[in-house]
């Protein structure tokens, strides 16, 4: 009576191995699903960044306001007749 039970348990264990640990087993499916969610999140962030860059490019192509704003803040340029006043920050 004991041998058939042992053989049955071993047979179930052998049949369960591919389901859990095999090439297409549940553990692999869970890992790939986790990777898929991570990649989708990265893609969402990159899509938002690309949308912002696309809006900035459109703005730079369409008008002079964006170019003027960049020139003022990044290069410190002023229009003719304007006076640039710089006040240094005091150290605490």
TrEMBL record:
Record carries keyword Transmembrane helix: yes
Periplasmic side: 22-92
Keyword NAD: no
Residue stretches in coiled coil: 29-70
Keyword terms, alphabetized: Cell cycle, Cell division, Cell inner membrane, Cell membrane, Coiled coil, Membrane, Transmembrane, Transmembrane helix
A Pfam family per the record: DivIC
Superkingdom of source: Bacteria
GO cellular component: cell division site; cell septum; plasma membrane
Subcellular location: Cell inner membrane
BP term (GO), one: FtsZ-dependent cytokinesis
Sequence ranges on the Cytoplasmic membrane side: 1-3
Record's bilayer topology term: Single-pass type II membrane protein
Job of this protein: Essential cell division protein. May link together the upstream cell division proteins, which are predominantly cytoplasmic, with the downstream cell division proteins, which are predominantly periplasmic.
Subunit (UniProt): Part of a complex composed of FtsB, FtsL and FtsQ.
Family: Belongs to the FtsB family.
Protein name: Cell division protein FtsB
Gene source species: Aromatoleum tolulyticum
Name of the gene encoding the protein in the UniProt record: ftsB
């Amino acid at each position: 009576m004991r041998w058939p039970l042992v053989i049955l348990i071993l047979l179930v264990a052998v049949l369960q191995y591919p389901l859990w640990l095999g090439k297409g087993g549940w553990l692999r499916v869970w890992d790939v699903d986790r990777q898929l969610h991570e990649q989708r999140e990265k893609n969402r962030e990159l899509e938002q960044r690309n949308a912002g860059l696309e809006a900035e490019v459109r703005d730079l192509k369409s008008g002079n306001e964006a170019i003027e704003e960049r020139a003022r803040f990044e290069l410190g340029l002023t229009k003719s007749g304007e006076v640039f006043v710089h006040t240094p920050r005091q150290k605490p």
